[in-house]
Structures are given as C-alpha cells and as structure tokens.
Task: inverse folding
C-alpha cells in the first residue's frame, strides 16, 4: 500500500533539493544562480508552489489561463505577477520547433488557418487536411511559414514559456549528474515505490569547483544536442561542430568531450574517411583508438597502424585495448590465422554431452551433470567475485569521506563509475590488502563486513543467504596471494573486471577450478576473455566447457503427480504428492505423502480423488516435507502430465516458504502429441487405456505418476531414435 503524500509535498521536495544545491554545491553556483535562488525564496508560498508545479512539468510552454490547482489560491493573479517579474516570458523564436510539437492537433490547425487568413500575397497558402497526422501538420507550419508570423498567431500569443529552464537544468545536473532524472523521484521515494541509498549517501558535491561543473554541464548539453542533430549534419557542419567545441575543464568534461568527438568522427566516416581517422587519432579512449586502427587499416595505412599497435602494447589504456592490439597485430601482421578467443576455446576447452531437456538452463544442467559424478559444482558467475570485492572494500567504497554516494538517489559511487577507485583510494586499499596476512584474517574481515552491512542496498552484489559460504569456499581452496592480487586488480580496473567471470566454480578431488559454459552457438565475449585471462595469470584453473546436446538415457527424471483442493496454484493447496525417480527407463526410487492443505477439501474434489478431510487431518504440512521433495528431485528433470499444473503448485508452495525451486521440465502431454500424432485424446486416462498401461487408481498421485513414467519411456524411445536418425 502506497503512503499518502502531504498537500504541498512538491514544494517540500523542491526545498530539499535546493538545500543540496545551496549546501554542498554552493561553491558551484555563480552570481546568477544564487540570485535566482534568493528571488525564489523571496516569493510567497502560492507563487513558489506555482513555479514548482511548472518546473515539474515536461514542457517549458505555459498556457496561462488553463491551470487549476486546488491547493493554490489566486492562480491568475499570481501567474500575472510571475510574468511581470520575468519568471515567464513570451514565446521565443528559437523555440518555435519545440512549441509546434507541443501544440495539440486542434491548435496546430488553428495556427494554419490563421496564417492562411492573414497571409501576405507573396506568402504561399498552407495546404493541409484535417485527417493528416499531427507530425505532418507540424511539418506544414515549419516548412512553409515564417517564424515571426507563427509568433503573432492567437494561439502562440496565448502561451508563455518558462524563463528559468537553464538554472533548473543546471541544478538538476549538479544533483543527479544527468539530464534524465527528475524531481518526481522524491515523490516516488516518499510513496515507497523507489528504493534509495540514504544510509550510504554522504551528501557530496560531484564536482571539485565551479569551472569543472559548468564545463561538464555545457559539454553534456552539447552531446545531447549533437545526438539529436546527427541525421541533419553535413560534412561542413560536422567539421564546424568539432572546431567549435569548447575546451573541457575537469575529468567529467574531458570524458564527455571525448564522447562528442567520437560521435562526430563516426559521422564523418560516412562523409570523409580521411577526416574521420584524423579526428579519431586525437581521441584518447579505448573505443576511439580501436576504431582508428580498424578504419586506418581499411584505408591501407598499414605501416602507421603497425606502429600505433606497438605503441598501444607498450602503454595500453586498459587490458581490453591491450587484448585487442595484441590480437590485431598477430592476425594482420604476423599471419596468425586465429584470434585469441579462438585459441582460448581450443587450448582450454572440453566437451560434455548433456540431455537436451536442459536447453532452457544449460548452466544448471552442467551443475547436475557434475553432481551426478560426485563433484561439487556451484553457479557463481560474477556474483562470487563481486560479492568478495564488495564485502572486502565496503568501507573504502561507501564510507571513505569523499568517495561514497553523492546523494541517496545515486547507485554507483563515482570512483567505480569513472574507473578511478584505486587512483582515489590507493593508500587505504593498499593498507587493507597489507593487513590481510592469512586466510583466517580475510574470512574474519569479510564476516564482520557482512554482519555490519547485511541487507544494505548496493549496486555491486546481491545479498544472498549463501554469499559468505561460497566466498569462504573460494578462499579455502585458493592461494591467498592470488585472491588478494585479483582484488587489487579489480580496484584498478573495475570497468573490465567487474564482469565476464566463469559460470561455475567446482571442487573436484579437493581441487578448485572454474568453468565457462558454452552451448552450441554461444561465443566467448571479449570481457569474458579478459576476466578468464586474469584468473589464469594468477594461477586459477579455468576451462571452457562446450555442451553438445544429446538424449541421455541415464538422465534422472522425477515423474510427479499431485492432487489439490482446486485448479489455481495461488489460491488452492496440495493434498497429495507422488514421485517416481527414473534412470535408464527404470524406477529407482519412489516418494509419496498425503499433505495437510490447512483448509477444507471441497466435496467435488473428494468425489474425484477420494481424498477427504479426515485422511489429511494428521498428514504433514508441505513445509514439513519440502526438504524431502527438494532433495528427492535434485538433479532431475521434472516430468508430469500437463507439467505446468504440477510444477506451478510445487513452485508456489516453495514460494510460500520463501524458498527457491527450479527444475528443467518435460510435459508428457506435449511430448506425446509431438511423437504420437493423431490420437483422439491425450488425457492420462485415455493414453493409458490406448497403450494398455496399467493404472491402479486414477486421480491418486502415485498411480498417476507411475503411469506418466510409462509415457515418459515411450517418449524417450522416440527421442533417442530421432537423435540417432
């Protein structure tokens, strides 16, 4: 249930917002910014409310006589006052395009009719049809009418435009660091629909001084403008944009300047490749340097490219760029026929056969494959390493003064976002690493961090019940120096080492290894290559496991049937479960139990199943048998006749216990339809009758499960024949 908002919530939020702007960001404001805030605070409450109402709207255009807000008194008089004080101004010619798009279709037609009625002889008649789309009508005005004539129309004169957009945009940029976020996030927070990071927010300015703040703001505006103008840029206009870029001040502005130049350089490639590579050569980013190499090579500048590749390898901007440069140099200049990715797949790979029932969850299938062979396997991917990193460096990431979250709406600390974590906190990071001299000390540090911070929102990892257990397993089976070296590498290059880690961690014969799982058609990505190479360089055993699909006769199946109090898993409960475990077509184990549904069983259900309230009165609750069902079906394909019904009920019962249940599924209804076409009915009763399958008691769980198991054997015979064929 959402919490109600007070009447003047939006004004309170704006004052909270201004408190941040005038507090930690005060040094980032110029005289005009400060005067704007002073003037706003000097207004009466109704006038402040009106302004904030308009600030929160998407459009800067205001139709003065069309607004009603019950909590604000004397709106017409207060709006007139604000207009007289230049908070609002008449429509400006530079905004005609945006204004035309803001208008309703009816208003656009009014404008066209008035332009035609008052046109001079030399002006063309604007021809249109009322049935035309709004965009077509807007184009009719913009393509044929003069801006001054549009401004003089009755519709245009009924509108004002805001005269504070630049200040508000700058303040929002100081607060959020982007142009996407708006003040409505305060409301979403108070309503409880948006989770913030209040406990970690340090309330910091994101810029060191006013020059870097203003420079980043202007450069970001320029980037957005150029993105919208790209389709209209000619060769001359593109060059002009590049030549008129202001000099960036501060790291953020430099980053944005590089993005602008790269964007324009890519546009130049369509116009003049020589000009484009000249621009690309000057941009000091990974993506630009890689682009320059590829495009210059296409133009035949092979000597220059070779020299540049050698330079990159000597002093790479990142591990990612280094991997690209070494690979490109080897393949294009040293006549090497395969890429690094291909080499890794060949040199470190193995192939296993997995039953095709696991196609929807290949990693889980591989885990089950190893567990059947008494090898401990865990799906870890990035969560293991990010959890280790976040727990170990929690203090440095979130609590070190000046490095935490700027405000509660931020999710990623700037030091990680800009890949400068080690640069900003090298002293504290090195001290922490030095203090960890034994595995026991590392486990103690992680345990204390988890105990102190458990449940706190963060962008680095998800809190899971087994997170510490998995990390401790990693530590116990690894060399301490290797773990610490990887942690340090992640602080130095979070951008490239926060992702791409192998899917699985395995403990096999008391030895640790990692495996990246690839099924048919999957490819190894470059970020995975970097992470795998880093792990291997530190002595970790990492392999690529290729999965080929087959029909495995030794795949374990749990054939399940349930009886329930009704047909909807969210509203009804289970009264009986019967499971047969099958391997190689044989029943190897059975499990059966009545279940107390904790509610009355309807008479019509009793008539169908024979299960009545007395029979389940002393039966166990589902919670009491959940562990047995989970263990019995572990590593199995979940099979049932109309599988989504049985699976849905079992999964919902686990959900009520706040437990996760997931298994690959096989439906004997669907598979029988697929492999035994043309039968009059595919109900369990009719199929067993048609194929002379013995059934002791229809609509009792174990009897139905055994019968479905016979159908499974028939299906698998067909599947195996099809695979061999």
Result:
């Amino acid at each position: 249930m959402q919490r109600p908002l007070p009447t003047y919530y939006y004004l309170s939020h704006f004052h909270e917002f201004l408190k941040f702007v005038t507090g930690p960001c005060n040094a980032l404001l110029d005289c005009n910014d400060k005067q704007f805030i002073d003037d706003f605070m000097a207004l009466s409450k109704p006038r402040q409310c009106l302004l904030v109402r308009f600030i929160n709207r998407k459009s800067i255009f205001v139709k003065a006589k069309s607004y009603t807000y019950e909590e604000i008194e004397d709106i017409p008089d207060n709006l007139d006052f604000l207009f007289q004080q230049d908070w609002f101004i008449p429509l400006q010619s530079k905004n005609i395009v945006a204004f035309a798009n803001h208008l309703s279709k009816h208003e656009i037609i009014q404008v066209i009719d008035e332009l035609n009625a008052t046109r001079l002889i030399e002006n063309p008649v604007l021809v249109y049809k009322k049935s035309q789309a709004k965009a077509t009508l807007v184009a009719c005005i913009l393509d044929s009418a003069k801006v001054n004539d549009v401004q003089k129309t009755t519709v245009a004169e009924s509108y004002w435009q805001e005269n504070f957009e630049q200040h508000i945009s700058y303040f929002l940029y100081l607060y959020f660091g982007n142009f996407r976020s708006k003040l409505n996030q305060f409301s979403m927070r108070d309503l409880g629909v948006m989770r913030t990071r209040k406990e970690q927010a340090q309330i910091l300015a994101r810029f060191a001084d006013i020059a870097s703040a203003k420079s980043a703001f202007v450069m970001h505006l320029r980037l957005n403008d150029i993105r919208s103008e790209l389709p209209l840029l000619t060769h001359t206009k593109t060059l002009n944009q590049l030549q008129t870029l202001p000099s960036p001040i501060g790291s953020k502005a430099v980053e944005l300047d590089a993005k602008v130049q790269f964007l324009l350089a890519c546009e130049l490639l369509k116009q003049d490749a020589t000009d484009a590579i000249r621009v690309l050569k000057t941009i000091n980013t990974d993506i630009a340097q890689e682009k320059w190499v590829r495009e210059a090579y296409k133009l035949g500048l092979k000597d220059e490219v070779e020299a540049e590749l050698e330079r990159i390898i000597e002093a790479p901007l990142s591990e990612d760029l280094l991997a690209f440069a070494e690979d490109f140099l080897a393949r294009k200049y040293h006549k090497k026929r395969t890429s690094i990715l291909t080499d890794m797949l060949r040199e470190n790979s193995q192939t296993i056969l997995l039953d095709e029932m696991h196609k929807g969850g290949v990693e889980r299938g591989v885990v089950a494959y190893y567990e059947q062979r008494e090898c401990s396997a865990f799906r870890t991917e990035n969560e293991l390493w990010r959890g280790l990193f976040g727990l170990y460096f929690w203090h440095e990431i979130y609590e070190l003064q000046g490095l935490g979250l700027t405000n509660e709406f931020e999710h990623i600390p700037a030091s990680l976002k800009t890949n400068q974590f080690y640069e900003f906190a090298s002293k504290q990071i090195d001290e922490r690493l030095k203090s960890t001299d034994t595995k026991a000390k590392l486990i103690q540090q992680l345990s204390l961090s988890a105990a102190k911070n458990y449940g706190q929102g963060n962008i680095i990892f998800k809190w899971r019940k087994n997170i510490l257990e998995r990390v401790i397993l990693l530590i116990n089976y690894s060399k301490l120096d290797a773990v610490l070296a990887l942690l340090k590498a992640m602080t130095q290059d979070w951008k490239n080492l926060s992702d791409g880690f192998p899917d699985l961690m395995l403990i096999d014969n008391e030895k640790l290894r990692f495996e990246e799982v690839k099924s048919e058609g999957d490819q190894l990505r470059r970020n995975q290559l970097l992470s795998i190479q880093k792990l291997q360089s530190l002595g970790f055993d990492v392999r690529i496991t290729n999965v080929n699909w087959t029909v495995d006769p030794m795949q374990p199946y749990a054939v399940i049937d349930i009886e329930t109090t009704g047909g909807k898993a969210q509203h009804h409960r289970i009264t009986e479960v019967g499971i047969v475990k099958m391997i190689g077509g044989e029943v190897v184990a059975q499990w059966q139990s009545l279940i107390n549904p904790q509610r009355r069983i309807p008479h019509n259900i009793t008539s169908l199943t024979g299960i009545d309230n007395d029979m389940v009165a002393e039966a166990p609750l589902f919670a009491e048998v959940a562990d047995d069902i989970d263990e019995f079906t572990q590593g199995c394909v979940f099979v049932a006749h109309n599988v989504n019904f049985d699976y849905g009920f079992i999964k919902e019962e686990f959900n009520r216990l706040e437990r996760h249940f997931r298994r690959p599924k096989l439906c004997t209804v669907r598979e029988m339809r697929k492999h035994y076409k043309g039968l009059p009915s595919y109900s369990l009763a009719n199929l067993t009758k048609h194929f002379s399958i013995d059934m002791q008691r229809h609509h009792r769980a174990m009897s139905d499960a055994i019968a479905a198991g016979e159908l499974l054997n028939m299906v698998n015979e067909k599947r195996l024949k099809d695979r061999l064929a």
